[in-house]
Write a structure and sequence with these properties.
The complex is a heterodimer of chains A (360) and B (301).
Chain A lengths: L13 E10 L2 E11 L4 E5 L6 H9 L6 E6 L2 E2 L10 E4 L11 H10 L5 H14 L15 H13 L5 E5 L7 H18 L2 E6 L2 H7 L2 E6 L2 E6 L1 H6 L4 H6 L6 E8 L2 E4 L2 E4 L5 E9 L4 E4 L6 E10 L3 E8 L2 E8 L9 E6 L5 E4 L8
Helix pairs in contact in A: 2-3, 2-4, 3-4
Chain B lengths: L1 H4 L4 H30 L3 H5 L15 H9 L1 H35 L7 H6 L5 H10 L5 H14 L6 H24 L5 H9 L3 H12 L1 H16 L3 H6 L7 H13 L5 H32 L5
Helix pairs in contact in B: 2-15, 4-15, 5-9, 5-12, 9-12, 10-11, 12-15, 14-15
Classes of the chains: A alpha+beta (360), B mainly alpha (301).
Chain lengths: 360, 301
Amino acid sequence: MSTARTDSNPGVSVSYDKVQKSFGAVRVLEEFNLDVKPGEFLVLLGASGSGKTTALRILSGLETATSGRVRIGDRDVTDILPKYRDISMVFQSYALYPHKTVAENIGFPLKVRGVNSAEMDVAIRESAAQVQLEKLLDRYPRELSGGQRQRVALARAIIRRPSVFLMDEPLSNLDAKLRGHMRAELKHMQQTLGITTIYVTHDQIEAMTLAHRVAILEKGVLQQLAPPAEIYNDPANLFVAQFIGSPPMNIVKGALEGGHFVTQGHKIATPVKGKVASAILGVRPEDCNVTSASKGELKGQVYATELIGDHTLVTLKVNDSFVVVKASKDFTAKLNEAVGVTFAKNSIYLFDAETGLRVR
Amino acid sequence: MNRGSSGLAGKGWASLRYAILVFWAIVCVGPLYWIATNSIKSYGDVAKGPRYLPFIDFTPNLDGWRYVLFNERERLVGPFFSSAFDAVTATVLIMLSASMATYALTRFSFFLPGRVLRKFHSEPANNLMWFLIIASRILPPVAILVPVYSIAEWHGLLDTHWLLILIYTGSNLPVAMWLLWPVFGAHASEIEEAAWLDGASHREILFGILLPSILRSVFAASFLVFLLSWNEYLFAQHLASNHAMTLPPWLVSQISAREAQIIAEEDEIVHLSAAIVLMVVPLLLLAGGVQAALKRTISGR
């Protein structure tokens, strides 16, 4: 890797200040506040329609906020044209210029800024080298594989040494194997360059593996902003708890009555006191174990077992709902066999069914 | 194709389809072939009824071509170059303005001016503008012939190339916009957004990114508006019939020559046939050339 231009970038901060966005009568982003630290890799995670892409596009300048301010570093960029914001963006479709060669694609941001061709050549080679594209500079995008196109898009984004990288689902058009590889490369590149990165995805694995912090959005509202481990271990509400984790967290409806969670035929000791008439108990499949019918916090029947490879997913019918347990790979059970489910007291999450908020 | 032939009566259906296609091809190409053969018949052979196969039905004869290319030469060269100049210039002007106008109307929102008008229509008025632009083509050309004549006369533009170029540009601009509209899409693509973020201006995005990526459609639209200008008769006949005469009025003047009893009817058919071939050949060459050029360059949308 060339070091001539990789002078360590101190990174800049980014902040959203009460940003709102409506399309006609439809609110897509509700009073969105977010502070991104210099050099941070921040992931905006959410389902489609959650407002994550809109938030990114407002920062890029492709979309204007209905109200609120956006800052990059100490500059208010709310009313500034995209090209003066010192950002570069990688699109889901890669958005390569089909009639330009790889070199012309990578060099385009410099060309439109009037950089002379000798200087541009050097920069193109450096950027291409950073993503291992040196041998493909004369090719056209249609002659490249998906992964190579992705690299061209990255090289075009890094050639300008922007203050902020914006990435809109950059890996979702790649096949699963390549996605894992590119994920590692992206993380490495971001750490090497130290450029503040805001990355939009619907894929929780990408969010967990890449991010310094994850911001989870739903229906235009920021649900939680925290490092990946905290998002997983300490979800702020039911939405986050169910969104993160695969298979998703098990849910049982009931009532919380002074240290016990009560539901049809079950009374489970909880780490939380308090009284909630309509409560939800959550427990992750990986925190559960299948045991004999006489023991266990929950009792049910085996509904299905699925061998995944390194583990077996056991689906149990408990009252009217299903509970999934992640068991060892050599787990076996008969269909409809009565079993119990055990889990540690401290692996229980409790939520208020009305608000969805955690009961602590 | 594959979807259809996997149906019940796959084979019968396919042959019926080919039969229809062959029939239609004959309907389209037949007259052209007939005219081409007529242009190489002797005056006598034309009068002897339908004959289609050269060397078998009749002996090819170049009298008609000799007449058109040599006897008529002085009267032909002028109209030929007039047609070429007018159509090429109009096509360039049309494609320039049509691409810019379509870009503006699909990428930006335009609102009605003034508070009063805005009260009636506060939404973007782009669709209204599209409607007005396309609607300008609805008026029959004959209806505006007289006013255009008067205006041209006032400005001393009668019988000039610039008058015809102006008319062709104005009347075919909506056609080109109509053709480009669906290809441009209703809003900017991610590729254009990428260019915008990379720092390109709208001019650079339109001419450097968008148009090169839809070359195929741009050439198709150019060819169509070229053809419309090249073949235009009404305005050319009435507004530029002498100095700036183009090929279509010249073609018709061949008929007048017979009416004035300068030549016989058989001669006229041969001469007209040769002249029509002369008018069609440049279009065919152009179409072929564009196809070949597109094959060599990158494939567009």
